[in-house]
């Protein structure tokens, strides 16, 4: 079968306005919990879209590391490609592609840097190997070989020995402060259900159904 003929029907359910919470974070929390209960692999994976100074967008998968009324948190090397683009343009978007349950969530907002204390607290929870990798990788920079990367990792292991690994100065976190969140539920005949929450000036949320 040719790729333009690959398709399937979405028959797992629907989404009605009466099903939705009044607040998008509460709705996200409900959907995330339902996804976790399905044993979906990596439910915290999200695609982060950024834009450079020339208007060229780029995307990559990052892991959600926290969410609340302030927004959606992730951590990264602060000299990485995505961090450099965020420095130029704070407007970003997140996509949670929960296709196995025929759902997706899109977050629109701007990225704000998290405090060093917040980054420090999270860094302490990472496996030791991940802490070492943060030091070894000059994320997004060209590197001559895999062997060079592994050598840098071994160098960091020797440098810190069995002692505590400090938070690198070039490593931290961002919080995507949301002003709109869309919830998508697949339906038969491509008549999907889409609802978008938009933040109002008074801080409340307006919900609208979108055509599929």
Main attributes of the structure:
nine-stranded antiparallel sheet, 212 residues, 33% strand, 25% helix, alpha+beta
Secondary-structure blueprint:
Layout: H1 24-37, E1 45-51, E2 57-63, E3 66-68, E4 71-77, H2 81-88, E5 91-98, E6 103-113, H3 116-123, H4 128-136, H5 146-160, E7 171-185, E8 193-199, E9 205-210
Helix pairs in contact: 4-5
EC number: 1.4.3.5
Enzyme class: oxidoreductase
Pathway: Cofactor metabolism; pyridoxal 5'-phosphate salvage; pyridoxal 5'-phosphate from pyridoxamine 5'-phosphate: step 1/1; Cofactor metabolism; pyridoxal 5'-phosphate salvage; pyridoxal 5'-phosphate from pyridoxine 5'-phosphate: step 1/1
Helical percentage: 25-40%
Oligomer class:
single chain
Instruction: Please give the radius of gyration in angstroms.
Output: 20 Å
Quote the beta fraction: 25-35%
H/E element string?
A: HEEEEHEEHHHEEE
Number of helices: 5
Q: Given the helix and strand composition, which structural class is it?
A: alpha+beta
Cα-to-Cα separation, first versus last residue = 26 Å
Major sheet characteristics: 9 strands, antiparallel
Uncertain parts: none
Total beta-strand segments? 9
| Form type | globular
Mean pLDDT: 96
Could you characterize what this model shows?
- Homodimer.
- It catalyses: pyridoxamine 5'-phosphate + O2 + H2O = pyridoxal 5'-phosphate + H2O2 + NH4(+); pyridoxine 5'-phosphate + O2 = pyridoxal 5'-phosphate + H2O2.
- Its cofactor is FMN.
- Keywords: Flavoprotein, FMN, Oxidoreductase, Pyridoxine biosynthesis.
- Pathway: Cofactor metabolism; pyridoxal 5'-phosphate salvage; pyridoxal 5'-phosphate from pyridoxamine 5'-phosphate: step 1/1; Cofactor metabolism; pyridoxal 5'-phosphate salvage; pyridoxal 5'-phosphate from pyridoxine 5'-phosphate: step 1/1.
- A hairpin with a 5-residue loop joins strand 1 and strand 2.
- The protein has 5 helices and 9 strands.
- Strands 1, 2, 3, 4, 5, 6, 7, 8 and 9 form a 9-stranded antiparallel β-sheet that branches.
- The two termini are 26 Å apart.
- It is α+β, with helices and mostly antiparallel strands.
- The model has no long low-confidence stretch (mean pLDDT 96).
